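Running log. JK asked me to keep both predictions on one page so they can be read side by side. First protein, sequence followed by its tokens:
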Amino acid sequence: MTEEKKKKNLKTRFDQLGLNEEILKNLSQAGYETPSPIQAELIPVAVTGQDCIGQARTGTGKTAAFSLPMLQQIDLRRPGAQALILAPTRELSEQVATEIRKLCPDKSLNLAVLVGGKPLRPQENQLKKGAQIVVGTPGRVIDHINRGNLKLNTLNFVILDEADRMLDIGFRPDIEKILRKCPEKRQTLLLSATLPPPVERLAKRYMQDPVMIDLSEDRVSVESIDQYYITVDPNRKVKLLTRLLFQERPKQTIVFTRTKRGADKLDRIFSKKLKAVAAIHGDLPQSKRDRVLKKFREGKIRLLIATDVMGRGIDVSGISHIINYDIPEFNDDYVHRIGRVGRLSSDQKGAAFTFVAPDEGDQLTNIENRINHMISEFRVDDFEAYKPKQPRKTVEKVTHLGNTGHLINPDFGEF
């Protein structure tokens, strides 16, 4: 985003975006003061009924950006599905539903959340009550359509949230099946952190002359995040993680693994050594995932081990460190992972560490090209994870977020 646009967005007010008085009153009661850049750019276009593609990083206020124009145009006096919001995960679906209820406290709003891992009957009952807004994952939405519980002929709005992630995890056939059943005369909003070719093809096929609103950065912001890599022998990763946690003493950290099995393995190891540790991934029962996320947001869990799919739904302001235990398979996943950190107060910097095996140098280079930033090497004190043949310039020290007393927790003391 240009400096000129940033200054413009700082001056923009919600009452300049074409929102009605009732919506503005709800915003004020919900504690919203000024629109974020994606809200300032997308809302004025979306309230006109135009199809829109909004590209912006996770955690930038996209939910309100698409919810407010939708809420302004929904008729709460009329029962039946008027808006369908598709999201990649149960957690994100429920997060979106919570935000919508916050933005529209009107008791006549009926909202159904259709996600897997939860009983079908309560969801079916929500639909029978005439839910005007339906939020859900593509698989469960298809299930309710096939059972005859959800009729799409009354839809006016379709919103695809985190479209890139939905396609990454294999929802494209379900999404296309749903879109083909929707009325041709509708407004479609597509929100995505990245726009790879599959997302562009989806938009071209199912949207009508969409307005493109691109607030993605050409480079990942490095002002609020110190980024490092650590070359490590694969069989020393667990020891490296142990030593790194002891040295850094993070306030809250997410450790990302590529696989569910890897997340469970680390959880078993570190739960024996530390308090306030948990893992979260798609194979956990929904009730347990809900409990883990709740405790993490409350600060009761300080070390969360997560897979990429789950990482997208985590928005917690106190995360000080991200540790990529496994280097991400896709460059954009690196962007999403480190986007979880760096939301601390202005005088504190977050840190992101990526463990890189000796044969993963090309993947590290691809990430550096993606973010247009050279990632420096970091070495843990008195521990040799691996001795590279041609070491890069080494950063021996990093700003320790544990230097201030209130960030230090003895649970991350000696093992």
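And the second, directly underneath as requested:
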Amino acid sequence: MFNYFKQQLANVAGTQEPEYGPTAIQPVGQREGEPAYTELTKDHLKWMTINQTCVETQTFYFFTESGHIGFVQALYSNVVGLRITCQFNCKIFYPNQEKEPLWSSDPLSNHGFDQEQYSFFADNLSVELSEDGNSYTIKSVTNENSIVDLKFVRTAPGFMGGENGTSNYGTDPKNPWGSMRHAFWPRCDVEGRIITKEGEINCKGRGFFSFALQGMKPHHAASRWNFVNFHSPSYSAVIMEFTTPPSYGSTVVRVGGIVAHDKLLMAGTAGLEVKHTESGQDSDNDWPQPSAVACHWNGKTEDGKDVSASLVGSIGDRLDRVDVMAEVPGFVKTIVASAVGTKPYIYQFAPKMTLEVKIGDEVKKEEGSLFMEATFIS
């Protein structure tokens, strides 16, 4: 009980947590009897809106036929159970970095949900899940430089790690004081457009949908992140990886999977790896910015065949470096206020790379587009 009160004080004040050790986190997919993954149903797509410090996001990534890469994101935040704020974000990277990335981030007013918590609404924004649970329509006029009209249609099974996609934090597993949850649609068809002041961007192409809940202060939940999101004509592959702060034993938690066309080849929380094989010190903040990576997936297909895949090589120059404390809305600054040693930066890359996939004795290679983020927090 004393541990619980210490943790609640850290939650409210933003102070550094005591070192509870690795037993104070129960990583997704590692509890006894838990499946490697669970295929998503419509019921798994409800907004949770928990009444404690949290950030809940629905993020829709697109890889257009014209070469644009980006995402739109609806974000719900609760600060210590006392203040709720919402935001809509849009980011677009232009082909061959011909222009600076477009970034818009706008606070939302009068947010709400449908009766069953499937769809999100606010003034000038709607994020609606279809009746059959297989597509989202996103419409936004919250910013005149990024008028959004998009549709994401799931083309392969969605999944989450373990039984419910959730890692829990706390010294009493039956009464966790924090959580982290991820659920994915790894492969989607995308149609629609984003209208900017400089013209209309046709967003026809492939997409990826991530539904995430961070049920505690971000610098308490993780010190580093890696996000790998790859798409080619035949394959989609994802890894979401975070490392906890020393207060939870610097534990590495991963979830990922591979899709071939409309089939989920493998998914789960084991047999995954993201390594920064080359990096250089960022002179502005001393973080080790990666320049080459090795990403690996290992598992089994539903019929028991061994499956593995790898992405190895240079990731080129970064597309952007995001100083989170300079860019994020005020409510996130409130969440990390008073945190010692917290200086979050996100490094974003989008190189062309080749995925090598091996199923049984058959090996295939295919070039595609990778969107990768390396995030350093504390």
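Observation for JK regarding the second prediction: The chain is about 5% helix and 55% strand.
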